[in-house]
Automatic annotation (TrEMBL), chain A:
Protein name, as recorded: ABC transporter substrate-binding protein
Signal peptide: 1-18
Domain Leucine-binding protein, first and last residues per copy: 32-371
Family: Belongs to the leucine-binding protein family.
Keyword terms: Amino-acid transport, Signal, Transport
UniProt cross-references to InterPro entries, sorted A to Z: BCAA_transport, Leu-bd, Leu_Ile_Val-bd, Peripla_BP_I
Keyword Signal set for record: yes
Top-level taxon of the source organism: Bacteria
TrEMBL record, chain B:
Keywords: Amino-acid transport, Cell inner membrane, Cell membrane, Membrane, Transmembrane, Transmembrane helix, Transport
Subcellular location(s) of the protein: Cell membrane
Species assigned in the record: Phragmitibacter flavus
One Pfam family in the UniProt entry: BPD_transp_2
Topological relation to the membrane, as annotated: Multi-pass membrane protein
GO MF term set: L-isoleucine transmembrane transporter activity; L-leucine transmembrane transporter activity; L-phenylalanine transmembrane transporter activity; L-valine transmembrane transporter activity
Keyword Transport: yes
Lineage per the UniProt record: Bacteria, Pseudomonadati, Verrucomicrobiota, Verrucomicrobiia, Verrucomicrobiales
PANTHER family registered for this protein in UniProt: BRANCHED-CHAIN AMINO ACID TRANSPORT SYSTEM PERMEASE PROTEIN LIVH, HIGH-AFFINITY BRANCHED-CHAIN AMINO ACID TRANSPORT SYSTEM PERMEASE PROTEIN LIVH
The protein's name in its UniProt record: Branched-chain amino acid ABC transporter permease
Length: 381, 303
């Protein structure tokens, strides 16, 4: 009862603030304000920029088609610089100062986890495009995502290592600074053990480290058939280079944190031939995906959209789909409509929202080949 | 056994980098008696200088080549030497007669200022950039031990620079003046030494060292970003204290110890999580039991 009242109070306060603000701006109540927070600069900048561009493209398309509920959408974007602490600041600002009706973001699980309690407390739906850590949506019933979660991704890679690569002994190299990495590593290990494989070495690094030779030498001496490195692209590129220098020639495996042109730019031939799972591939697309790829290339200088761009795009359409079905932008009604999504045609495949507010959808496995990401297989949930 | 030898090689190469950075800390401390925390950021600026110089030098001297790398290192060192002089002029010189603590705090401020200015989109931006290969690289095999040519370059450069520095400090007129300034500033100035010139020279030398260390660091891990100096900077600082701050061979030995410890800790399952903590545990232990460091003596003449 108490929390309910606080809820209403907060909601009332937000609504009042929104009213004041819209009055100030003089008639801007004709637009629907949507907030976005992303890592536009910093360590994971290529992810943030991609998802932001996808989101931006979607919003532009939606507005060109007449907006939603007869009103255009105004996207307010904030940069959290890939830094801990920053998401709380910018999301607070988006909600209390700008008065947005929903929040889109973040790619990184650690930063989504920071913003989620704020959105939850304010009764503002938050949709993460690409945070795969299960804990993100556990924060509360206002938090959604349009991507699959780590248990699925970790398990997919465990299956791939065992069945396709025939790896019996694997090593795991985890970024202890990242919730994403730890989550993926845990489910990979469980998957491998379930399939009768053996974890021969478990080592850690800190995201941002530059020297990994100590750990890699230990991994090498454990003699594994493959190494799972659920990190982000910058670290992974440096790890791959040093692994190659140490003569560690076995396959390296990872998750969607690998997918960035920077991985190849820094890693060059050291990342060749390695595998990772991700959300979609431009080579295995539906008509909807092909249309998206065309539109994105046209809008952003012929750049090929990566998975983060596709997910950013999906997150905006997912929100608009919810608003259309709810017929309103009120937090609780919008939340219910989003939670009731059963068949949403996303660029990254058909998806449904389950009772934990996670997207249920397929994953793809890619291999780095000639500096490009080559599609290998699709894995259904 | 292979494991142990390979880890020793890894640790020595990493330690040499720390040693090289520590030389800069220890030299500035020797003359001015304060820690120039901006040293680690000059290291980053050195790497960026090389990053921007590489495409300029490439049409004249094709990269990767040793000549090209040496030219780029020399130019970057010169650029950073000037930056070092400017920093001293603007930030430290006005505080020369203030308490040491004021200067120390200013140094931290300068460091943060450089880091966050460089993170701005209009400067370098915060995203990691791929560092171009400057030197031809090869990996040598000794049985099962693999030594990369970059690591050899790092070790050799560190040794050469250590000797060059020792020569400058012990055998040249300006080195004698530096030692005099470090011994007693007032007395040195009464003897007709231009203190400001000596301090500028010290900063130029320290910053040039940092630039070379930055380039070598970027060559080992070819991804550079504006905060890349923080981690090696703090390790090198610990190395300088460990060896006895103000003492040149001490800095080199300290760097090697930290590099070896970090590598062995990192390569031990279960301990790899704590490798960052180890450097600081050492710092605390040294301060507790031998505050002057391994080679430091309380009354030694320092530079």
């Amino acid at each position: 009862m108490h929390t309910l009242r606080r809820h209403f109070l907060l909601f009332g306060a937000t609504a009042a603030l929104l009213a004041v603000l819209t009055q100030c701006k003089g008639g801007s109540s004709d637009t629907i304000l949507v907030g976005e927070f992303a890592s536009l600069t910093g360590k994971e900048a290529t992810f943030g920029v991609s998802s932001h561009e996808g989101t931006l493209l979607a919003i532009e398309e939606i507005n060109a088609a007449g907006g939603v509920l007869g009103k255009p959408i105004k996207l307010i974007t904030e940069d959290d610089q890939s830094k801990a602490g920053e998401p709380a600041n910018v999301v607070n600002k988006l909600i209390s100062k700008d008065g947005v009706i929903a929040i889109l973001g973040e790619v990184a699980s650690s930063r989504s986890l920071e913003a989620a309690p704020i959105a939850q407390q304010s009764g503002i739906p938050m949709i993460s495009p690409a945070s795969t850590n299960p804990k993100v949506t556990e924060v509360g019933d206002y938090i959604f995502r349009v991507c699959f979660i780590d248990p699925f991704q970790g398990t997919v890679m465990a299956n791939f290592a065992t069945n396709t690569l025939k790896a019996k002994k694997v090593a795991v190299f985890t970024d202890v600074k990242s919730d994403y990495s730890k989550g993926l590593a845990q489910f990979f290990k469980e998957g491998i053990k379930k399939l009768g494989g053996e974890i021969v070495a478990e080592l850690d690094f800190n995201g941002g480290d530059k020297d990994f030779k100590g750990q890699l030498t230990a991994i090498k001496s454990a003699n594994p058939d493959a190494v799972f490195i659920p990190g982000y692209y910058t670290d992974v590129a440096l790890i791959a280079i040093q692994a190659k220098q140490l003569g560690l020639t076995i396959p390296l495996l990872g998750g969607d944190g690998w997918e960035s042109q920077t991985l190849v730019d820094i890693g060059k031939d050291a990342v060749e031939g390695h595998y990772f799972s991700t959300h979609y591939s431009t080579e295995a697309g539906s008509p909807k995906a092909l249309a998206f790829i065309e539109a994105y290339k046209k809008r952003f200088n012929n750049k090929v959209p990566d998975a983060m761009a596709a997910l950013g795009y999906d997150s905006a359409y997912f929100l608009v789909d919810g608003i259309t079905r709810a017929g309103t932008t009120d937090g609780p009604a919008l939340r219910d409509a989003l939670a009731a999504t059963k068949e949403f045609e996303a660029v990254t495949g058909k998806m449904a929202i389950n009772e934990k507010r996670d997207a249920v959808k397929a994953a793809v496995i890619l291999q780095v080949k000639d500096g490009k990401f080559k599609f290998l297989e699709t894995v259904a949930p | 056994m292979d494991w142990f030898l390979q880890q020793s090689v890894n640790g020595l190469a990493l330690g040499s980098i720390y040693a090289l950075i520590a030389l800069g800390y220890t030299m500035v401390y020797g003359v001015l008696r304060f820690i120039n925390f901006a040293h680690a950021d000059i290291l980053m600026l050195g790497a960026y200088a090389a990053f921007f110089l590489a495409p300029v030098v490439h049409p004249i001297i094709p990269l990767p080549s040793f000549t090209g790398a040496i030219v780029i290192m020399a130019l970057s060192a010169a650029i950073c030497a000037i930056i070092g002089i400017v920093i001293e002029l603007l930030a430290y010189r006005p505080l020369r007669n203030r308490p040491r603590l004021t200067v120390l705090i200013t140094a931290i401020g300068v460091s943060l200022f450089i880091e966050f200015t460089c993170q701005h989109e209009a400067v370098f931006g915060a995203a990691t950039r791929a560092f171009p290969p400057l030197m031809p690289a090869a990996d040598f095999k000794l049985g099962n031990i693999i030594i990369s040519s970059n690591d050899i370059v790092v070790v050799v450069t560190t040794i050469l620079l250590l000797f060059a520095l020792w020569f400058i400090v012990q055998r040249t007129r300006i080195g004698t003046a530096m030692r005099a300034v470090s011994f007693n500033q007032q007395a040195a100035s009464l003897m007709g030494i231009n203190i400001s010139r000596i301090i500028s020279f010290t900063f130029a030398l320290g910053s040039a060292l940092a630039a070379i260390a930055g380039i070598l660091y970027a060559m080992r891990a070819p991804g550079i970003e504006p905060l890349m100096g923080m981690q090696p900077g703090i390790r090198a600082f610990v190395a300088a204290v460990l060896g006895g701050i103000g003492n040149l061979p001490g800095a080199a030995i300290g760097g090697l110890i930290i590099g070896l410890l970090e590598t062995f800790a990192g390569g031990t399952p279960g301990l790899s999580n704590y490798r960052d903590g180890i450097a600081f545990a050492i710092l605390i232990l040294i301060l507790l039991f031998k505050p002057a460091g391994i080679l430091g003596k309380a009354t030694v003449e320092k530079v």
